[in-house]
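Tutorial handout. Part one gives the primary structure; part two gives the three-dimensional structure as tokens.
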Amino acid sequence: MKILVLNCGSSSLKFQLIETTPELIASNLDRMLARGSIEKIGSQDSIVSFSARGEAPSKSIRPILSHKDAIQTAFECMSAADGIVSDLKEIEGVGHRVVHGGEYFKQSAIMDDDVVRRIEGLIDLAPLHNPHNLKGYYASKALLPHATQVAVFDTSFHQTLPPQAYLYGLPYLYYTRDKIRRYGFHGTSHRYVSYRFAQIHNTTRDAYKLITCHLGNGCSLCAIDRGRSVDTSMGFTPLEGLLMGTRPGDLDAGAVLYLVGRAEMGMHEVDVVLNKNSGMYGISGVSNDMRELQGEAEKGNSRARLAIDVFCYRVVKYIGAYFAAMNGADALIFAGGIGENAPAIRAQICGSLSALGNRTSPTG
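Part two.
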């Protein structure tokens, strides 16, 4: 069967076409047939990138004015590639990344009318993401009416957190009435790498305690006890936890109140500072890209070096906390763009963990 995977943002679309069966999934042998992205949706100069069978991507510029147009363009790219898709009816299922599933969705769900209404009801918790995730659903449903549409939630893996891990020290009414609690994100990544670790070791996830590190522009750690997420660093929103590309991570709320009063900042200005101008970019003043920061640090840029050091320290601190919370861990797993592709960062992090019994080469 052929499965289309969609990740729809406010002005972007990422997609992959995967050929798989239950047997191929079990042996981790499913095949990626094509992948691509469309940026600047809604403009006359949208950027279309497409690659079939792992070949070098081709890029083109064209007007794409809506998410439906973007998905149609993705279909055109796949149809034009020899042997990828000859008829859209070959695509039997569509998996949609949905950022927020609240407390209701504890696993992926087939998108019927009730599920869609519940996702719409969670827009207040993820106003920058859920509406755009739904745009992808509406568009693909119109273009692929025969396919099964499935929502895969960033938050669902973390619905096993115990109350002592997800509750904040606020009046309890804010939890019961307003649903303010730790939800956690990147659940699909943490779940997959824990599953893959067990698969490589020819056993099941309930045999291990794991600490998984998803490190990219957005970053989070997860404590996984016997296959269940028991703590994670992102909270009510993706702002909490580790230092990230443009987000500050853990921050005293009093500092925000101080800035609001001192600089007379409104809600929009605070949002921009916390989501766009902080993190590694804010500390370095250079970039939110770890590769660029490493290059600048090698040239002697002290603020780039400082941003890297703060980043690594935060990761080490959370690893230590989760090791203590689970009373041990069997493995430390890295994922994400930085986690997978920056051996020097892994080395700096792991170099501070000898007391925890770290034995694996961070450059391996």
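Part three, for discussion. The domain at 2-153 is CATH 3.30.420.40 (Nucleotidyltransferase; domain 5). The mean pLDDT is 94.
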